[in-house]
Design goal:
The chain contains nine helices and 24 strands. With about 475 residues, the chain is an alpha/beta fold.
Length: about 475
């Protein structure tokens, strides 16, 4: 096969936020996954798990979305501030019906973001909350003057306001966020967003609830009503499978990869509609929930959505990243669901132990694209098994990722490089059986290894791409 990487064709900057994550009050994502409390015997800093924080910093996590998800539209922020002994517990009706003691609230989330060095992305409650509640939350977090909210924040230990950039006005309001019609939500958005104020020194990047999957009617309906009042609309897309992660049949695997590639078609459909109402492309698209969704693991709690991650998830992630990167002029963020112990997580925890999942290594491999400029590239002989991205950074280093979803075919590439010399080549690989996974107390089956199957030749590269693999090349 032949591939061309055109370093003279620079197409747009790949936002680091495309490699963002999502943390919801769901199962063991927050409690036990990210937060164990200051009095835990598990090593922590101000209640945040040290091992998980260090792992996420290894991924250069750019942005973290919270508190949901469906949980966001039943979350009332005042229950999560002040002395923890005084915080009222709540029943998490969406996820397992368990009691949430609200010990992880606004201050704790923003402390976590400080430790990670990432941007917070907060989702406000439209489904069961009021305009006043949302407005005062933003004032509490971002205002500097003298008011009831700023005095309350200071009384709770935070003198200076936080910088909050990303703010979502509701979540899945077509479903768990209120079962609203598109037109009704659009009018609600206009009302709520009006009172999401930009206090001095802080400017909100407002995100309206966008479509699920291929719901083009939702996008068509809301765009003319919200386009002048939002910076982006969100989209949700899951790669479903009716089996457990480690029990996926060959047929299910092929359907999994087919479903993963489908997001590109849906993104194009929504962007085409958005372009009709916003020809200058001022409104961006955010895919703030995506990832694989298997049946829960045996023995895990109903409603906690705990699943393993396998080599198959690496390939789903690679395909997804490549699609997001290819649309970097229109997609400003994406957030995998979720960060720890829920759905396609990057880490799993069990007491004091933590495991980096195969998906963790997919993210780690792709950090080379963060903030880079997308390059024009294509592979001849269109092959759905092959997915790739090429980018160049400010130091003139070209970074190429190529994945092969075939389980039995390897591919030889002659990659022509235009406008750049391929030298000082470094290559790495993730490859394993499609059902390989990383588990507690065992050596990792899936991680990043040096790769010798890439050579610099006159005019470009020669690449050998093994079956069921993702390869990165820097030169």
């Amino acid at each position: 096969m032949r591939m061309t990487i055109d370093c003279t064709n620079k197409k747009g900057v790949i936002a680091p936020e495309i490699y963002g994550s999502f943390a919801e009050h769901l199962g063991r994502c927050i409690y036990e996954g990210l937060y164990v409390g200051e009095n835990s015997g598990i090593p922590n800093k101000n209640g945040m798990r040290t091992d998980v924080v260090n792992a996420l910093k290894e991924l250069k996590l750019p942005v973290l979305r919270w508190p949901g998800g469906c949980f966001a539209d039943e979350y009332h922020w005042r229950d999560g501030i002040g002395p923890k002994a005084d915080r009222p517990p709540m029943i998490n009706t969406h996820w397992g019906g368990v009691s949430d003691d609200n010990s992880f609230g606004t201050h704790e989330f923003l402390e976590l973001c400080d430790q990670l060095g990432c941007e917070p992305y907060i989702t406000g409650n439209v489904g069961s909350g009021t305009v006043e509640e949302m407005s005062k939350w933003i004032e509490y977090m971002t205002a500097e003057g003298d008011s009831e909210m700023t005095r309350l924040r200071k009384a709770n230990g935070r003198k200076q306001p936080w910088k909050i950039k990303y703010f979502g006005v509701g979540n899945e309001n077509w479903g768990c966020g209120g079962n609203m019609t598109a037109e009704f939500y659009a009018h609600q958005y206009r009302r709520y967003a009006t009172y999401c104020r930009n206090y001095p020194g802080n400017k909100l990047y407002k995100v309206a609830c966008g479509p699920n999957d291929a719901d083009y009617v939702w996008t068509e309906t809301i765009m003319p009503l919200v386009k002048d009042r939002c910076d982006a609309i969100s989209m949700h897309f899951y790669t479903w499978c009716k089996s457990r992660a480690r029990e996926v049949s060959l047929e299910q695997y092929n359907e999994l990869m087919k479903r993963a590639r489908l997001i590109g078609k849906y993104i194009d459909g929504h962007l085409n509609i958005m372009s009709r109402y916003d020809p200058e492309h001022k409104v961006k698209l955010i895919v703030d929930e995506w990832g694989t969704w298997y049946q829960k693991e045996l023995g895990s709690v109903e409603g906690f959505l705990y699943q393993q991650s396998t080599m198959s998830d690496v390939l789903v992630a690679a395909v997804s990243f490549d699609i997001f990167n290819a649309h970097c002029d229109r997609i400003s963020m994406a957030n995998i669901a979720q960060t720890a112990n829920v759905l396609q997580s990057v880490v799993l925890t069990e007491g004091e132990r933590m495991v980096k999942t195969p998906t963790f290594y997919a993210f780690k491999m792709y950090t080379g694209h963060m903030g880079g400029t997308l390059l024009g590239s294509f592979a001849e002989n269109d092959n759905e098994n092959i997915s790739h991205t090429a980018s160049i950074n400010e130091n003139g280093e070209v970074f190429l990722t190529v994945s092969n979803a075939s389980l039995d075919k390897s591919y030889e590439f002659d990659a022509a490089v235009v406008g750049h010399e391929a030298k000082e080549v470094k290559a790495e690989i993730i490859t394993a059986d499609r059902l390989a996974y990383n588990d507690f107390g065992q050596s990792e089956q899936v991680n990043i290894q040096p790769f010798g199957g890439v050579k610099a030749v006159h005019g470009g590269l020669k690449i050998t791409l093994p079956p069921c693999s993702v390869v990165s090349v820097k030169f």
